[in-house]
Amino acid sequence: DGKKIDIDAMIKDLLSQVNFEGELSLLETSVAEGMVETTEGTDLKVYMGNGTYADELIVMTARSEKDAESNQENARAHLAEMKKQFDDYLPEQSKKIESAVQIRCGSYVVICVTSDVQNAEKIVDQYMKE
């Protein structure tokens, strides 16, 4: 819980160094909160591209580690829902969702849907382990 991660720097590195299909943009908070359920007081940032790609970056900063565990479950539910939608009309994008990076560290949860999984994991790990 005591660990502070520079979320903005991590997001900047992920967006600039990870290979995403299409450009990801930050969703408005109200839109993001409509997509992914979070615990009270969680800071939620969701970046997504256009509808033909599953690529997505979700960063949640919860008030506590216990809240982060709930957020991680909610993120998994979001991915499962997203996978169902892509299964029907873009199955190759659906595979990307299955192998999404899902990392929780303390009160932080990072979800990254990309075909550049190893690179994304490496960047997130660097921040989580600093």
- Proportion of β residues? 15-25%
* Rg calc: 14 Å
User: For the terminal residues, how far apart are their CA atoms?
Assistant: 14 Å
Widest sheet: strand order? 1-2-3-5-4
Mean pLDDT: 94
With helices defined by DSSP (H or I, 4 residues minimum), what is the helix count? 5
- Globally, the shape reads globular
Order of helices and strands: HEHEEHHEEH
What profile does the largest beta sheet have? 5 strands, antiparallel
Give the number of DSSP strands.
5
Structural class: alpha+beta
Roughly what percent helix? Answer: 40-55%
Description:
- The protein is α+β, with helices and mostly antiparallel strands and about 130 residues long.
- It has helices at about 5-15, 30-35, 65-90, 90-100, 115-130, and strands spanning about 25, 45-50, 55-60, 100-105, 110-115.
- The chain has a 5-stranded antiparallel sheet with strand order 1-2-3-5-4, sandwiched between helices.
- β4 (about 100-105) and β5 form a beta hairpin.
- The protein is globular.
